[in-house]
Amino acid sequence: MKLIAAVDENWGIGYQGRLLTRISADQKHFKEMTMGHVVILGRKTLEEFPGGRPLAGRTNIILSRNTEYQPDGAIVVHSIEELHKKIVKYDRDDLYVIGGESVYRLLVPYCDTGIITKISRSYTADAFLPNLDRADGWKLESEDKIQEEKGISFRFCLYRNKNPKKLNILTKKNIDFD
Fold it and tell me: CA geometry: angle at 155 spanning 153 and 159, to 5°?
């Protein structure tokens, strides 16, 4: 399972429910990486998308404590156990955790890869991704050259987790699919 995020110098990812900045090259990169795959996100993150609609061309799995919440075109789960039951049928490499903060905090330990856009700027933020540079088991594997857009410098970085927690507590063998 992978996580994908854009972070500022302090690993901030958002402020008051919104992204810190929009970089078209980052949005294009995000789309290229996640298209045709499974994205895992929280309700608040989904509600920030245009029209509050799931991302097209991807299977959207929403984590929400609200048992009444059921947006069209998405799968909703209410616990990590329920998430495990839903994702066991997918290849681990097809799973992308896309936020927000509480979903990242819950699932980062299960991720083996971090696809991070590092923005060379500090913003006012109230939502953060755990700092992978300081996280146990995580190591920066590669980073692209610095790019610039609208005066904002950034680079795409790839992290690897040497010891991800086992995701498939449940396996295809012990789940009866319809």
Answer: 150
Which ranges constitute the DSSP H helices of the chain?
A: 24-34, 43-48, 80-87, 101-107
pTM of the model: 0.91
Residue type, 36: G
Write the pLDDT tens digit of every residue in 113-130. 999 999 999 999 999 999
Name every residue whose Cβ is closer than 8 Å to that of residue 125 and which is 6 or more positions away in sequence: 8, 10, 12, 13, 14, 15, 20
Tokens of 110: 């299960």
Locate 47 and state its tokens.
């509600």
CATH class of the domain at 2-174:
alpha beta
Domain boundaries, the chain: 2-174
**Rounded Cα distance, 173 and 23, in Å:** 43
